[in-house]
Design a protein that fits this description.
By secondary structure, the protein is an alpha/beta fold. It has helices at 40-47, 80-84, 90-99, 115-128, 145-157, 171-174, and strands at 2-11, 14-24, 29-33, 55-59, 65-68, 133-137, 163-168. It contains six helices and seven strands. This is ABC-type nitrate/sulfonate/bicarbonate transport system, ATPase component.
């Protein structure tokens, strides 16, 4: 169980999250919905150890994580397959791309992709990576409705017992995962 207990976070002198608590089972899908500025990205950065806590504590975060950051963090001058081949064989990559609405894009340079296409490559990378838990910050931003649906189906089919924690400002994104535990939510 991942426990966020009474966490307060500050960034550049401003409080970005105050007295926030939540529990997430590391084998389930959990979602945090909140408006821009709520502190979703800061919470993820704290869970990853990148941002110190002002108060409170976070326990139980698995060590082997794969992450989709708000920025795609892909190698722009590499092809899609070059960005993904460290994590899976080419045939698995081709299947993932097809299932996420990117068939035939293996040899496309990342810099030539649209924002939504880059986002899906970043999601595929996180899912293909051997990890115990997946964290995604606003994973569906810039992705159209049909490709969101396809990508969510791909994620669910490939969790293989891993849990997923994702953030969004869009209430509809949580509906992409009907089995999700929406225990963490902005009040």
């Amino acid at each position: 169980m991942i426990t966020v207990n009474n966490v307060t976070l500050t960034y550049e002198g401003k409080t970005v999250l105050k007295n926030f608590s939540a529990q997430m089972d590391e084998r389930e899908i959990s979602c945090l919905v909140g408006e821009s500025g709520f502190g979703k990205t800061s919470l993820i950065n704290a869970m990853l150890g990148f941002l110190p806590l002002a108060t409170g504590g976070i326990q139980g975060v698995p060590e082997r994580l794969s992450v989709v950051f708000q920025e795609d963090r892909l190698f722009e001058d590499f092809t899609v397959i070059e960005n993904l081949k460290l994590f899976a064989p080419p045939e698995k990559i081709a299947d993932a791309l097809a299932r996420c609405g990117l068939p035939g894009e293996e040899k496309t340079k990342v810099r030539e992709l649209s924002g939504g296409m880059k986002r899906r490559v970043a999601i595929i990378r996180a899912v293909l990576c051997e990890s115990d838990y997946i964290i995604m910050d606003e994973p569906f931003s810039g992705i159209d409705a049909e490709n969101k649906r396809k990508t969510a189906l791909y994620i669910c089919a490939n969790l293989n017992g891993r849990g997923l924690f994702f953030t969004t400002h869009n209430e509809e994104d949580k509906l992409l995962f009907p089995q999700a535990v929406h225990a963490v939510k902005e009040e």
